[in-house]
Write the structure tokens for this entry.
Amino acid sequence: MKYFISIIITAFLKITCFAQADCNYTFSGKVLNADDNLPAAYVVVALEETNFKTITDSLGKFSFQNLCHQSYHLTVKGIGYQSFRHQYHIHKNITETILLHSDTCLLESVTISAKIEQQPIGNQILELNNEQLELNRGKTLGEMLKELPGVNAYQAGPNVFKPVIQGQYGNRVMILNNGIRLEGQNWGSDHAPEIDPFTANQIAVVKGASAVQYGADAQGGAILITPANLRNEKGWDANFNTMYGSNNRQMTVAGMLNFVPKIVKGFSGRVQFSAEKGGNYKTPNYYLNNTGREQYSAAWAAKYTKEKWGLNAYYSIFNNKNGIFSGAHLHSISDVENIILNGNPTYKNATFNYNINRPYQKVLHELMKGDLYYNFNAKNKINLLISRQFNKREEYDIDRPLSDIINGIDKATVNFGLTTYQSQISINSKINTINQNIGLGILNQINTLNTNNVRLFLPFYNQNYYYAYLIEKIRIKRWLMEAGTRVENRVQNTERYGIEENKNYWYNSSSLGVTFYKTDHLNFSINAAYSSRPPAINEMYADGLHQGDGTFIKGNKNLNTEQNLNNQFNINYQNKNTFINISVYHNYFFNYIYSQPSGEILTTIRGTYPVFNFTQTKANFKGIDFQANQNIFKQFEMSMQGSLLNAYDISRQDFLPFIPANKITIKLKYHLKNSQNRKETFIAIGHEYVFKQNRVPQKSSYENSNTSLIFNNLIKYGDYMAPPNAYHLFKFEAMTQLNLAKQKMIAGVVVNNLFNTVYRDYLNKFRYYTDETGINIQLKIKYLIN
Amino acid sequence: MKNNLKTLALISILSASLLACNKDKNEKKAEEEIENEIITTVQLTFTDSTNSNNKKPYNWVNSNGYQAGSDAKIDTIKLDNSKTYIGKILLLNTTSNPVDTISNEVLELKNEHQFFYENQNTSTLNINFITTDKDDNGVPLGLYFKTKTGAISKGNIRVRLKHQPDVKPKSGNGDVNLGSTDVEVIFPVIVQ
């Protein structure tokens, strides 16, 4: 299912043969699982020399027509199988039977364990296809994911995007980076995932329900970041990307080298890097002062494969420095009010530059992973995994001790450190049509912080997780079923101002999914999941003014484990010209944890603040995500996608705050005919309509007596400012692939906000202070060298 | 044997790189790292311009500073009617020992700070403020001021300190809408 989208895109391409005559041969066949000779259904079959790509039906069959008298390379790829590639000389109609071997000696076995062994069935997995990946390179992860239906992003200015899946974010969205759950500082609204998208060859989102298998913190879904497989053949290949974005004059370079040396048999390696530098962004009318960004990342990967066992190693380092719009970094609520009333005075003098001054944030993330596997036989495999992550987050507030200014001291205001170790042992076995995966693991995490402030926003903490999981997958004719369960124990110690606290939680998650393949074109799936999650450290212990947005947050130590029941129903239809995917979900929380205005007012030396408290309530998230593609004329393709969501606080009989507004996107695409050296060429125009979010909280705990604008808005909209109006955005895209002598080149142009529209988005925290960014023309070139 | 050696080498490289990672340099106990530079107290002192013995300080105190979790203790300013007072503001941090006078640092950074005094009830409260000191550009600073009272009345005054690095005007009387707010407190006033 996960390949459907990319298949659809390419399936619409109309192919013209290069050779003049004899283009009427047929190549058909059947793909079987070599282990049991059962049909390998829904695997991708492609002819390299053409754009022909199809997937096998439920009987494993495929067919290509109109082939010319020449040689073709056939490739077959499917989840859980080793890929197959073979050359065929076509001079008559041929029929072949292809045997696919189970991928038991998988290269990135951990990645794969996230992708295959743990891959949920009956659930919606959406993936950015190659084209979307190439067109969105140079963006942050959170911004890239917005391309997918049902996925949004919380923003804190133009550099910080935090993914939102079906209305859930932060502690309810798990990110698996190369099979390892990302452990960073994800609790703040201005904390983006610490990931360089260039390390990924595949970016996928598992929505809702069965994502709980990955752990308790995936109640909204999981994001899978997967690097490309390492090379198997001797030799090397490389690619090199350069990019330019006009809005903030951002330059990006990235490169990757894969190599298999002749000397060490079974060894394969990769090194890669990326660097980005951008300056101040521009809205249609003015520059945003101090919004530059810098990012440097590097990674290496290696594997050593023997017949029965193998060893994989991966290391990545991510460095990022984000300037924070200086007109949005405020400590006093009256400053916020002043800007809402009178506009932002920092616009006046802003010009373009690459400088990053206070306030800014600096983030370092390091991931080190090693795993060792052993294949007992074709059906049983054991895997041992260890990983270490280190996250450092430094926040440089504009506000610092005056004595530091006088003495020229430029220290971080807050400095958070988080070190996480994880180890896991898992066994994967196949019994007839049942695929079973069982695992045990332990995770240890230590958090430290360093601050100039007397008050500690978070305590010091360390926690241990112990977990066990079991996943069973069964295939019976046209039915695929999956059941998974996971038990976790979390032991948590915190310390602040000399007061220590210990907590111990037991919790579990379970899911059941069924997919029914009605015909080769149509399938239905249903998935139900129960999960529970202990409250996060910030939800229990946050205390103080959250930097930058004048919000005073208080944690709640009495929070209970959050439990939810998530049901999803999907319909998938696809044929030669049409692709439709509809997903309906109902996510019910018995005790949803969120922060709401408490009714308390705090008088400080900097003015009067509303206090936000973490609290629990019964909540309902009901929504529909849909996507449809239709081939209209020969070379025209139209696609539409959208997401609708209604989130309601049942206990308080009110809407929940900061829920993504409904959204619809339409795209019209024209494919140019291929020529000898040019293929996959298209131009496209897209239109996005985002509705006004009218479903905002209206039952405030504040009384209508305070005359301040902020408090009045809090009563009316549950927020400092009314939700912004609906908006239309237009986008232009063009891309082509050129074959040069020994290289391949992919070139693309993307124009975001084509008409330089002035708008504000409900999910952007900085909408109190500024418009969104204006037109951005991005040029991208990628060289592939073989 | 040769293969085993290679394997051993790979495993040692792997474990070596695990150890070679960045480490958390933060000490777990950070108490000593904390610099207590916060403002806990705003003190306004009024001296009768005709009788320097008639002098009284009024305090606005929140011992946790701006990150407070508790409410403030606020004095009510009581001034005689139809008089002129010489006024002075002090910002103190009483959590440090000895007490730290933050307003000295404001003076040192006078070109990027300004105090603003505002009568919030001009119709009922007969009082006005004129700042008397200036920064290097001749723009008011506000550590010192002159207060004139009128007839018997009461109401509130608001005192704000704006931190305006790079944006404080170089001429004129300043602009309260620029920069970020370091102090914003309200004192009740009785003119008796």
In short: The longest helix of chain A spans residues 333-342. DSSP finds eight helices and 40 strands in chain A. Chain A touches chain B through 58 residues (CB under 8 Å).
